[in-house]
Amino acid sequence: MPTLTSRRHFLNQTTLALSGFAVGGSSARSATAPAPSTKSSHRFTLAVVGCGGRGRAVMKNLLTSGATLVALCDVDPAQIELAQADALKVGGELTTGAKTYRDYRQLIDHAAQYDGVLIATPDHWHAPLCRAFMQRGKHIFCEKPLTHRISEARELRELARHSKVITQMGNQGSASVSLRRSVELIQAGAVGQIRDIYHWGVGVAAQEGRAPGADPVPAGFDWDMWLGPAESRPYQKEVYHPFKWRDWFDFGNGGLADICCHAMNLPVRALQLDYPTRIEVAGVNEAPLSDQASVTFRFAARGRLQPVALHWLGKNQPPPDVLAPLVSVYQDKVPNGLMIVGDEGRIYTSHWNTNGLIQLAGEPRLTDINRHAATKEIPTTLPRTPSHEQEWISACLGEGPTFSPFETGGKLTEIGLAGILALRARKNLDWDGEKMHAPNAPEVQKFIRATSRPQWRV
User: Fold this and answer.
1) CA–CA separation, 72 and 70 (whole Å)
2) Which CATH fold would you assign to the domain 1-25+176-208+238-383+404-458?
3) 70, 129, 238, 256: most buried, per Cβ within 10 A?
4) pLDDT in tens, 375-418
């Protein structure tokens, strides 16, 4: 078994390729430098746009991290009522004065009342809302994926670079000790050169177009605003709202877009992966796409680091030799997740890059990544944080940077959505990520840039 001394030599040979932890080769400082922030003597006031299940969960975490709720906004009054009840349980009587809005434009008119905005709407509303609130100087916490289209992610990255607000994309695994320790070990060369990464358990199924039929719109629910930039269609009960929108390409982009910013977070950070140069698909003959479809993202070499293939297997399992270490631990209850395979070992994590396990060459089993005796001397280089939400609030109060700003979150989103292009085209793509262009598939250009109904352009 190679010694840690040889792994340290590997580290010395790859320092330039692995400088920093931000996505796309930027240094940690340049990608996450804090912008001018809300003064720490001021209580942090929060507005929530999108009060569905995920919005309420993040809202509760923000309230327990010190935010004061002052506004709730949703086109569905039923969702606002649920959010009010959840806020009262967590934030107590302080939340009873929070104002409610059905139209985000009215919330913008009262921008002086809050410091930051949580955006947790369906994906097709992310970019217009982020843009609108950032232009008014509000700090933004936006759920993943950052945007619905690749061009929107690029636009928000650029806007964030020239903005004075603090941004954070909601991929909570970024705050886990598991992810940060995994990055440290991979960048220290603990598992050697990495050429293959496998993710399984999350399918890619999504549908084009619209479902047939129509139902009455619930009282008080502004269906036209819920549609917003998307193409108009009749309301249908439990087909699009409150959560099934993700199964339709007009609003979300299926399971790959849902989880890519989680599962790709660790490997893209640790290996400084840039845009994939080629995207290959399999099992795409069914209409609509099934969860048996898969995508392989191929990344070029970076300095002394070898090319990497990231295999998004959908609901298919990885090869037996990849799965074997998990079988030895979990028997017939092997979990889904991510396996990073190196020449000298492997690392397994959940979809969210939590619960990390490591196994070096010659070791009998996977071990908790934070309690692995053979790597304990590898130093801690990344900051630790109580939570993803606390990290954002602290940054907004001038206390350090966020770990997943729009520069980082936008790059992860672009990579994942490039896979969506290949799935929708049902063909392999040569991909020029910098130019947002697939030379061999001009038909996907219509999916790269967002279009919107004229009355809902923001």
Assistant:
1) 7
2) Dihydrodipicolinate Reductase; domain 2 (3.30.360)
3) 256
4) 999 999 999 999 999 999 999 999 999 999 999 999 999 999 99
